[in-house]
């Protein structure tokens, strides 16, 4: 358990929750792909979710304090599907969690920098010890795929339907990853310079390896995901160059040099929304 969980147990006289709750072998219903705004509003009340999309078990103290960071723009329908599926999923895993949606206001999309912003902003709200950096279009199929941090950084989405449930290459570290706060700090987060599609996840992989860590993955049968359909992004032309020179910037480009402007923060019923100008 994290030091914080132990402290809370002492204060609250509640027991610690199991590290991995029982009953996760069952699978969850399929994501409902026709979620309406009405469904979303009612879900928050029905599931006792705190404003801003946060929740924790009431009967015990979760050992996992997890910030789930979703970079976002222009995918509202996918976000609804994601949220209405993920809240029940995360609750069954007995996590103390909050979902952050980090929306980029303008310019070429910068997934990695949005992750850095989510990290920095989440820590202002709560001392999360575990971070999950997650695309909005990925739906985990197995409840046994714990949304918590392992000792080593974990590539979570290693078995995705669109890749016919195969890992395309060994170094792939995209889609959804789980990493401890102190490890993320150690690798200086993501690079901030990857605008457009591709490469930022490969650079993040190099950062982790460079700091002497090794990735882990759950077995393919557990790490199974469905990707929601969307049009293909155009890969950026700079991605090869940025990736090649990446190593020179590990220490000088990341959370320690992060600059951004928060335009709006709203605590919506199912998520904390942060609109940012990068
Ligand atoms: C790779 C991309 C990743 C992406 C995976 C899976 C690059 C860098 C130049 C080699 N990497 O090719 O960013 O997550 O495909 O789609 O484009």
From TrEMBL:
| GO cellular component annotations of the record | Golgi apparatus; membrane
Q: In which pathway does it act?
A: Protein modification; protein glycosylation
As recorded in UniProt, its EC number(s) are 2.4.1.-
Signal sequence annotation: none
Looking at the record, the residues that make up the Galactosyltransferase C-terminal domain are 154-230
Q: State its cofactor.
A: Mn(2+)
Does the keyword section mention Transferase?
Answer: yes
Galactosyltransferase N-terminal domain sequence ranges: 45-150
Its BP terms in the Gene Ontology are:
carbohydrate metabolic process; glycosphingolipid biosynthetic process
Report a single Gene Ontology molecular function: metal ion binding
Q: Which UniProt keywords apply?
A: Glycoprotein, Glycosyltransferase, Manganese, Membrane, Metal-binding, Signal-anchor, Transferase, Transmembrane, Transmembrane helix
Q: Which residues of the full protein are shown?
A: 57 to 334 of 334
Give the protein's function: Catalyzes the transfer of galactose onto proteins or lipids.
Predominant location:
membrane
**What family is this protein classified in?**
Belongs to the glycosyltransferase 7 family.
Supply the name of the protein.
Beta-1,4-N-acetylgalactosaminyltransferase
